Amino acid sequence: MWILRLTRFAMRAIFGVMTALAARPSDTMLHLAGELLLPLPEGALWWAAERVLVVSDLHLEKGSAYAARGQMLPPYDTGATLNLVERLCAALRPRTVISLGDSFHDRAAELRLPAPYAARIQALTGAHDWVWVEGNHDPDPPAYLGGRAAKVLRIGSLVFRHEPTGAAGEIAGHLHPAAKVKGRGRLVRRRCFASDGARLVMPAMGTFTGGLNVLDAAFAPLFPEGLMAFALGGERVFAVSAKSLVPDVAASRWRL
């Protein structure tokens, strides 16, 4: 089985005494290419054996990009997203942080990035081995913010890239998966991880990022035998059975 539900005792036996964040009871664990991974309700992925934290599709400064085009969104998305990343880094103390592409919403984001936010990013990249994986929105991360750039990153049996190809052992982003779930007479739509045990697509972590239903045709070539969704809850991640997934009613107008 590639999905595990672990008791608090089992979690501590595997990870040792780590943090309260990684020791919640009944967390959903994933097996991928022989590795045990913990999907977090914040939308990040924790690889305890290598002390690697993976975040994806932060889309920093998306709000200011929209404001420049006349759509006045509140200018707090970058700060809110950084709050999440900082909290996870403080709790888990990762050796490596992988930002899995589209970390910035566009190539001009660094010009709009307020100095206090830039300082917070520099503090994060200075405290960890920070890897900016190339995305379709941000092929060249700003050098002054620190960290190192990579088109594709391989660690052991896992490969990290932005746009998924369906390769075995792959962890990717880009598609912003979301699960629409029917249960107890109501519908709930949540960001989610999508996996079949051989490959995984990460949810978008950015505050203003949208989501693409995992039943959309874009996911079919990546998961030819079907996928399972792992929906983000307030305190934990929930495994969702395929029969509980429902498509969006209208054709999606969301764009990558």
Automatic annotation (TrEMBL):
Gene3D superfamilies documented for this protein: 3.60.21.10
Highest taxon listed in the record's lineage: Bacteria
UniProt feature coiled coil, ranges: none
Keyword Flavoprotein part of the UniProt annotation: no
Signal sequence, renumbered to the chain: 1-22
MF terms in GO: hydrolase activity
Keyword Lipid biosynthesis: no
Keywords tagged on the record: Signal
Domain Calcineurin-like phosphoesterase: 51-165
Protein name: Calcineurin-like phosphoesterase domain-containing protein
Classification of source organism: Bacteria, Pseudomonadati, Pseudomonadota, Alphaproteobacteria, Hyphomonadales
